[in-house]
């Protein structure tokens, strides 16, 4: 596309893929003013709003499917966002909250850029496990910001923590601890001045409010930036004064549930590809969250007694304290009480296709993987994972089972909530 002359104050929406080159004048985007000879990128299927600070000549290089349109006066919130956060000192920890598709990722990029403008060392934490822009789906991921960006996806996660699920419902207490762990890591290991924490869009029900308030109490952010449609965030923000409340962009690109699922599936493939099959000894590299091999395998006589007591056909059983993990025929998940023992019944091939996190000794993710099979007699697990893991195999200290089942093409086929129940029983026993 030829160079276009745009007047001072004009606002444009761009949907990528596109590249914007400033030939003359000054253009504002995501908290930064770009001058003559400078350029920035709009990623595919992402939307960016820009504003001409002065009369400018700009070259727009638009890729397949890209869009460029001029916004009507007052139609976008770019000026209001800039005005409201311009006096905000970005030093410290800034937490961003809001529903899905209200521009939280754009705000994270904007605040990160402004911190760089102040000369601060900056880390960004993406805690949106369903639509993570820095790292794999199901993770909390961290990256350092060293140059201006227009989208978080332009960064690559340097550290990730596997949270096992694409939703934080039911697992939010662990999420609070792991997001806090990421904040402490950025502070202590990287010695950053600014930490921007982007969160998921779960905000509306009572449990979501408890989660977000518990997170605020745990990480004690210097400031909270809330992007609010009406008054849906007030139960979360009640009592906090260090807040800035912003309206959402009126033309933000919304994604359907299916779009989000496809985006995640592409993410699984990206972080597991090219896949290799690795056999892990479960004695040397145990399951983090299901202690099948930490106890005693029941003898055939004891197993038969357990079968009579439970009325379930059991192929193998492992006793760990007052719990028994029993592998059963069929697809039945159940928890039964036999005397003083809790019997957790797991379908014989429950592990097939489970998303797993290969973790290092500090609990950070080495790589995602897909569990193919557990060979109980050999005490081995076969995992499909990235070929890069072969070079880092010594870093993997345990395998954490996730609550998402994938097929061979990395498509999500099931959320394994029954395994979550088994993990909750294990966690309670550790208290």
UniProtKB/TrEMBL annotation:
Protein name per UniProt: polynucleotide 5'-hydroxyl-kinase
EC number(s) given by UniProt: 2.7.1.78
Broad EC category: transferase
Catalytic reaction(s) noted: a 5'-end dephospho-ribonucleoside-RNA + ATP = a 5'-end 5'-phospho-ribonucleoside-RNA + ADP + H(+); a 5'-end dephospho-2'-deoxyribonucleoside-DNA + ATP = a 5'-end 5'-phospho-2'-deoxyribonucleoside-DNA + ADP + H(+)
Function: Polynucleotide kinase that can phosphorylate the 5'-hydroxyl groups of both single-stranded RNA (ssRNA) and single-stranded DNA (ssDNA). Exhibits a strong preference for ssRNA.
InterPro entries xrefs: Clp1/Grc3, CLP1_P, P-loop_NTPase
PANTHER family in UniProt: CLEAVAGE/POLYADENYLATION FACTOR IA SUBUNIT CLP1P, POLYNUCLEOTIDE 5'-HYDROXYL-KINASE NOL9
Lineage top rank: taxon: Archaea
Pfam families listed in its UniProt record: CLP1_P (PF16575)
Gene3D superfamilies cross-referenced by the UniProt entry: P-loop containing nucleotide triphosphate hydrolases (3.40.50.300)
UniProt keywords, alphabetically: ATP-binding, Kinase, Nucleotide-binding, Transferase
Residue ranges occupied by any Clp1 P-loop domain in the UniProt entry: 98-272
